[in-house]
């Protein structure tokens, strides 16, 4: 999923395990709360992000090769199906990727590792789109 050269297990371990994933998710939602250009994306979320953060931490940890706690708790990720209740177009995808890119910049010091993660997340973010667009 990440790249052939860098296994998912290596990503989870290389960024520092669960503590690093937790920092990444906190930084991601900090971006969403502070960047004016992603206001529309933030509005799709509940005012209290506690549960949303908890679930994203579980998901990203598993996606990066860490513990499979997300699937143990919630079953198959079915990400696209779980997002069908939201309007996800190009603007929302780009806003999500902007927040993630900035969060990675502040939490993952290694540029190659940041690039590998973002490169792997980009098609996943695009897959979430459920609105027509370029």
TrEMBL record:
Record Pfam families: Bac_globin (PF01152)
GO molecular function: heme binding; metal ion binding; oxygen binding; oxygen carrier activity
Superkingdom: Bacteria
Sequence intervals crossing the membrane: none
Sequence similarity: Belongs to the truncated hemoglobin family. Group II subfamily.
Protein name: Globin
UniProt entry keywords in alphabetical sequence: Heme, Iron, Metal-binding, Transport
């Amino acid at each position: 999923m990440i790249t052939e050269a860098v296994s998912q297990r290596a990503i989870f371990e290389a960024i520092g395990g669960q503590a690093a994933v937790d920092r990444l998710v906190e930084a991601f939602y900090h971006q969403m709360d502070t960047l004016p250009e992603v206001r529309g994306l933030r509005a799709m979320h509940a005012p209290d992000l506690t549960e949303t953060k908890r679930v994203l931490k579980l998901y990203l940890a598993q996606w990066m090769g860490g513990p499979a706690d997300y699937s143990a708790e919630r079953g198959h990720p079915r990400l696209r199906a779980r997002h069908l209740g939201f309007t996800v177009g190009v603007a929302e995808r780009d806003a999500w990727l902007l927040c993630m890119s900035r969060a990675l910049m502040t939490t993952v010091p290694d540029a190659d590792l940041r690039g590998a993660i973002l490169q792997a997340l980009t098609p996943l973010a695009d897959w979430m789109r459920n609105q027509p667009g370029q």
